[in-house]
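YM 10:42: N-alpha-acetyltransferase 40 sequence, as discussed on the call
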Amino acid sequence: MLAPQARYLIARSATDPNDIQGFLHFQMVQEETMDDDIMANCAYCYEIQIAESARGQGLGEYMMNLLSQIGMYWKMDKVMLTVFKANEGAFRFYIKKLGFKLDEISPGACLPLYKARKFDYELLSKPCI
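YM 10:58: structure's back
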């Protein structure tokens, strides 16, 4: 979180600027693709945290949409993130609410099922269009 490339979106309460309601930590990075010669430019979401009191009100969706807009502005190929398989709520949020899909380099997309099962995470992505 202290890397010089780290960037943050911070959501504060409208009535108390000291009351942080959520944050999103991201970086602009290059990620592998299934083509050995091509790297993808990504707006990579490393972490998003929403205060318990602010959940279910659209703040997480808003912050992720802002990240997509930032990615588009900087001409990134996609927004990307890592999600733990055990975090079913996050999986639903990213896939059903925001339209993310398994990235081509995610274990579940590029490995046989018996190997993919050994990983406790998946990589999700969404094009910046």
